[in-house]
Amino acid sequence: MKFAIFGAGGVGGYLGARLADAGHEVHLIARGAHLAALQSDGLRVESVAGDTAVDLPATDDPSDIGPCEYVLLCTKAHDVKSAAADLSPLIGDDTAVVSFQNGVDSERWVADEIGEAHVVGGVAYIFSTIKEPGVVEHTGGPARFIYGELDGRTSPRIEALHDAMSESDGIDAVLADDIAVELWRKFAFICAQAGMTATTRLPIGDVRESDASWEMFRAIIEEVAAVARAEGVGLPDDLVPTWLDFARDLDPEMYSSLHYDLTHGKPMELEALHGSVVRHADEVGVEVPMNEAVYAILSPWADRNER
């Protein structure tokens, strides 16, 4: 099958290489020094699940590629709207665009541009990044990719995608029964992990050791879950203790991508995370004071980094 990877960074580059190794036609969309390296030297993946190197067509212009069966949208959340506006050359009658971002709004943003019929929801659990131009480093995480039709049906295209993902080494592929549940499940944890490591400027180990900070970590998860349930999303009853147990087992020196972006002067995903929680909460009348606090504390930094 023909895939376009829109945003061939840590997540997209990893997926593209694994799908290419399985025999699929894969095109990479990237920019800057990373694109130049992909074009000259190919893509190398250094992974705890096994290294690989592939030489794939790479461009910054989707019109070079043409319609695909699947577009895997793997940009940062703050780049989704601009990327969605450039998707049209990749879209055929039956093209599925699978959105793999942090947050719960990307699918709606993409649908506003290309129509909901083309959009598939996705969730990625993987620790990977661009180590240097042309090189993606996968350092951990289950490399689990979850996806599903927005209306919950099992369509021929989602089954075909599942077959392709399942047959690719290094991918733990999961076809969701309800992708909204999966999106909000991850969202609840990401908001807590990102929010607390970024606001304290400390790793998760220090957050765990402070009773007050650990309680705020819990409260952030609880607030996001309350918003999801108010919107009709059927999150599991054990969501909070499950994520707390998971967080207790994390490397004490672990931070988050939000903290990295904050401390390196890069655009932050604050609006797609805590800003989104605040907006969704306002729509359904749920109070989210801990998420509001994170948003207020980090907003000036997000503004400064954007400048």
Automatic annotation (TrEMBL):
Catalyzed reaction equations: (R)-pantoate + NAD(+) = 2-dehydropantoate + NADH + H(+); (R)-pantoate + NADP(+) = 2-dehydropantoate + NADPH + H(+)
Enzyme nomenclature, EC number: 1.1.1.169
Residue ranges constituting the Ketopantoate reductase C-terminal domain according to the UniProt record: 179-299
Associated pathway: Cofactor biosynthesis; coenzyme A biosynthesis
GO molecular function: 2-dehydropantoate 2-reductase activity
Domain of life: Archaea
Top-level EC class: oxidoreductase
GO CC, alphabetical: cytoplasm
InterPro entries in alphabetical order: 6-PGluconate_DH-like_C_sf, 6PGD_dom2, ApbA, KPA_reductase, KPR-Related, KPR_N, NAD(P)-bd_dom_sf
Pfam families: ApbA, ApbA_C
Any one biological process term the GO annotation gives: pantothenate biosynthetic process
Domain spans labelled Ketopantoate reductase N-terminal: 4-151
Keywords (A to Z) from UniProt: Coenzyme A biosynthesis, NADP, Oxidoreductase
NCBIfam families: apbA_panE, PRK06522.2-2
Biological role: Catalyzes the NAD(P)H-dependent reduction of ketopantoate into pantoic acid.
Family: Belongs to the ketopantoate reductase family.
Official protein name in the record: 2-dehydropantoate 2-reductase
Lineage, highest ranks first: Archaea, Methanobacteriati, Methanobacteriota, Stenosarchaea group, Halobacteria
